[in-house]
Amino acid sequence: MDSTELISLYSCTFCNVELITFFDNGVMWAYLLSIFDRNYFYEL
Description:
The chain is mainly α. The chain has one domain (3-43). The protein contains 3 helices and no strands. It has helices at 3-11, 17-24, 27-43. The model has no long low-confidence stretch (mean pLDDT 66).
């Protein structure tokens, strides 16, 4: 995978099958939740 494919992979989130599979696996959701929790506690 070259840089062009990598850019297109991230710029087209929901139309990319690999990313959709990534979301379905729950890995990305856990990552996003960890970021949200950190930012949320910083604002308290």
